[in-house]
Amino acid sequence: MVEINPIKIPGRWSNGYTLDLHTTGSDLAGHDGYEQPVIVLAHAIGLRIGIPVFEDCVWKVRETAQLKNVFDFDERSRLLDGAFEIDRSVTRGKTVLLFDDLYRSGATLNTVNSLLYDRGGAKDVLALALTRTRNLR
pTM for this one? Predict the structure, then answer.
């Protein structure tokens, strides 16, 4: 059994958590340029709890600058503004679980969350990230 230490994360969603802090190191297990682990995990979780996964109801419509060296939340949010679009027919009136692999500042999750509520017509949004960075700088 895997031990987790859930951490509540702030955002406009009704409830949000990460499962634990991000690891301090890892070993490369190989490359697969076509498979995103977060998508594989989302489908496995969806199958396990009996909810559909719509991996393409939100998509990026423009490239953004690399965010890994941008530490200010407001600057990260500014860089993400207008970067995503949504298929309202999938999200309107639904409770949505917004799922990501890493929570750093929350800028990406909050940007998509606002899109789900404001343009997607979601009834409710819950957020889940696998890990949270240890240092939010």
Answer: 0.83
For 8-63, write each residue's pLDDT tens digit: 999 999 999 999 998 766 666 666 666 678 889 999 999 999 999 998 899 999 99
> Do 4 and 132 contact (CB within 8 A), yes or no?
no
| CB contact set of 119 (below 8 Å; sequence gap of 6+) | 86, 88
Residues 6+ apart with CB under 8 A from 54: 87, 90
Phi-psi region of 84 (alpha: psi -120 to 50; beta: other; left: phi over 0): beta
Give me the pLDDT at residue 122, please.
97
For the cut 60, the answer to whether the pLDDT of residue 117 exceeds it is yes
Residues whose CB falls within 8 Å of the CB of residue 81, separated by 6 or more in sequence, listed in order: 111
Taking the CB of residue 44, how many other CB atoms lie within 10 A of it? Answer: 11
Is 121:91 a contact under the CB 8 Å cutoff? yes
The H or E element that residue 30 is part of is none
